[in-house]
Predict the 3D structure of the following.
Amino acid sequence: MIRTLLIFSNISQRLTFLLFICILICLVQIALIFQLFSHHDKVHPSSRFMKLNCKQKLLCPNNITRFSIHIDKNIQYPNISYIRSPVFSIILDTIRNSSYYTNDSTSACIHIAPVDTIDRDRRSKNGDYLYFIEQRLKFFPEWSDPNKIHLIFNHYTGTWPSYHRTLDFNLPSHYILASTSLTYSNYNCLSHLTFPLFHSNYSFSSSSSSSLPSRSMLLSFKGKSYEDVQHHRTFFRHLHNNHDIIIKYTDHTNTSDDKNEYIQLLQQSHFCLVPSGRRLYSYRLLETLHYGCIPVITTNDDELIILPFSEIIDWSKSVIIYSNSSLSLLPYYLKMISKTQRNDMQKQCLTIWLEYFSSIQRIVLTALHILNDRFISSFSSLSIQY
Ligand SMILES: *[C@@H]1O[C@H](CO)[C@@H](O)[C@H](O)[C@H]1NC(C)=O
Ligand SMILES: *[C@@H]1O[C@H](CO)[C@@H](O)[C@H](O)[C@H]1NC(C)=O
Ligand SMILES: *[C@@H]1O[C@H](CO)[C@@H](O)[C@H](O)[C@H]1NC(C)=O
Ligand SMILES: *[C@@H]1O[C@H](CO)[C@@H](O)[C@H](O)[C@H]1NC(C)=O
Ligand SMILES: *[C@@H]1O[C@H](CO)[C@@H](O)[C@H](O)[C@H]1NC(C)=O
Ligand SMILES: *[C@@H]1O[C@H](CO)[C@@H](O)[C@H](O)[C@H]1NC(C)=O
Ligand SMILES: *[C@@H]1O[C@H](CO)[C@@H](O)[C@H](O)[C@H]1NC(C)=O
């Protein structure tokens, strides 16, 4: 460049040349920015953060004025051994301990059958898929009562890649399904409740917000690669730069090493990739929030997932939803986010985690509070349903 500059003998020629170079660089920059913005709608459409706003309200059956829950009396279905997953047990215990619980079936606004509906994926490896579920459910007289509303919890329906939602049992006449992986196309604001995915051993000993370590990485990911099913997370490897973007796939040689590295990356990065996995939701979302890393949720364009508890949480200031189709632009997109904005998002993540997700009990109570708001508390002529 210096040599080229020397070709031009007089100063004004040199200046013109410099100006030309500057304009060229500017144009390239503008083109890049333009490309980002043209993708922006696809990448970050505001519709993906629609806070669910249900105008209709529900009414408890039988003139019941208080939102209350009854767990149907646990009569054992004969001659089939009864299994209950740890997650379902904790959910029932939390409800039993809550102020919404009533042990009187006749005064209850909604019911829960003590039949484990958490895992409805036949391919599930943890053995929590419950067989003969239809028979077990029908065994409870309340289940078949058309005047009763049943609350049903579900973590897994169907499986990757099509995420077919099949519970493998018939829903009762009136129900509310608290389920993970709901999308805008299948959500019904009266009969669905967005529910997060978590392990039965989901618990954190220390509170996270106090000790924020300094973060040196822009983006990271550590997890399975799913190469067998051509998942878009296998593309993440192309983002790895061994500097401020670290992508590592689990190698299974030492699970405790894998786990430690996973947590370290969550603590050291500003942004963490949260791809859908075998499900649309992943355990990663809550873990990422807990460690104060901003989740970058990568999804397929045709699956507009609703984040958990969008009924009450405004997620737009804390997470990024990013289309799987423009992953190569992701680093530029993230670098455009200012430090201040990043810090605000991070704080918001921790606040959301503490308020709604910091324990299974808190998660279940949040779900109950949302339901409480959904029912008209006193008998009113404005009523719509049931
Ligand atoms: C509900 O209240 C209405 C009006 O007070 C009454 O006519 C009706 O019998 C009540 N229904 C039940 C199931 O108690
Ligand atoms: C299961 O128990 C019920 C009632 O005790 C009985 O009528 C039925 O024959 C039993 N079924 C089997 C397969 O043993
Ligand atoms: C429910 O309450 C009992 C007694 O207070 C307590 O021992 C138990 O840990 C609670 N369980 C849950 C899930 O909140
Ligand atoms: C509900 O619990 C109370 C106190 O534990 C008990 O006295 C009452 O009989 C119970 N009611 C029913 C319908 O089981
Ligand atoms: C928590 O449970 C899951 C399966 O439910 C298991 O894969 C994981 O290793 C467990 N984590 C810990 C820390 O025990
Ligand atoms: C993104 O998701 C779509 C389905 O919406 C799929 O067809 C496509 O292959 C995915 N792209 C990548 C890069 O994985
Ligand atoms: C896995 O790594 C941890 C920590 O580095 C070590 O303590 C443990 O012994 C290793 N386990 C095996 C089976 O290699």
Notes: DSSP finds ten helices and twelve strands in the chain. The first strand starts at residue 69 and ends at 71. The domain at 206-355 is CATH 3.40.50.2000 (Rossmann fold).
